Prior knowledge:
about 425 residues, alpha/beta, 15 helices, 15 strands, about 15% strand, binds 4'-deoxy-4'-aminopyridoxal-5'-phosphate
Amino acid sequence: MSFIEARAILEPIESSQEAEDFLRDLRPEVLVLPESGIVEVFNYGRNRQGLIPLWVGEGDLPTPDFICEAATRSLAAGETFYTYQRGVPELRQAISDYMRRAYGSPFIGGFVPFSPERFFVTNGGMHALQIAIRMVAGSNDEILVPTPAWPNFFGAIIAVGASPIDIPMCFEGTGAACRWSLDLDLIARSITPRTRAVVVNSPSNPTGWIATHADIEALLALARQHDLWIIADEIYGRFVYESDRAPSFHDVMDASDRVLFVQTLSKNWAMTGWRIGWLEAPPELGSIIENLVQYSTSGVPVPLQRGATVALQQGEDTVASQIDRARVNRDLLCEVLGHNARISFARPEGAFYLFCKVEGAVESRGLALQLVDQAGIGVAPGSAFGSGGGNFVRLCFARKREDMVEVARRLERWLGGLGGGSAGPNL
Ligand code: PMP
């Protein structure tokens, strides 16, 4: 059962009268946690025959055998005990080697680049994010989040009692020239004495936007000027279509900069269910991070760390084939939808989502429900991604080609044919 399925089953229980008594004495920050905007659409569409589900941010391929086998061998060998809070040394070394291969030797000033001491193994990227936020913000603090953004940024910030400040990005242009960009002035103007950090997710879930080198330089300059932390979610940093990797804070920072990187094994190696990732942070924070791991999950199971180690050491073909597969789907969707005057989107440069809006749709929830009813496609409503998400919907295209061909066909038909036209959906 997926997380979304489980949420859908629990929802009726949680909204019952009896629940009120239990909830009354809970902390306000947990009571105000926003619900996943995807669950409602999922509930609505989950039993539809033949529906193609594109609402969740993961691919449809299982983890490659060589990775699973490493974990199985570890279990069979009895690696079933408590382990290092920071991660087993072999995995930290593998992360360090992997980062050096993918990102080069980025730091200036004699600092040892990508030393294993910078890496802390976590229970997925989500746990890395949670630790990063926990270290820098609490009650009454603010964290700036350019939107559209992955909803968990908001949830994780609210869970520590801090406030996410939604900074809409700009969506401009028409047709193939549509693009997203950061409003750097608005970010600068939104900094207050309570601001502690800026979240920068590039390549972005849900838009596929990639920060330019200049964007990253400007953000780092702002962070330096105002003593802010950067929470750099670069999990899709290598999941890009036009180059080897996206620009990174690694390219511009030095050892004294306050940058915390969120990373994960989930996407590149098809390991979403493993719940393993890492936080990259200044080594000086080691014992703090170790404490936060100890007092939350107490570490990542060793067999999973063995799987992650071989994924990083031997998984380049997996990464390359996942990107190739997604690229074909991206091109297909962009080609078909790009011809329809009623739909607009910025061609995703990275990650595996198409974030599009349909002319005439005023709110994304209704649009997503209509896509279930009328097109047999399950999408995530853009409103789940903050104010920048407005009337968009997100489609995850990390799926087998036949599904995407069928999605393209259904969308095309639903939209009333190529080039738009009057026979489109009733919005
Ligand atoms: N950051 C972003 C932008 C994501 O899209 C995700 C997963 N959807 C994560 C972090 C966390 O990944 P995980 O917890 O699965 O490792």
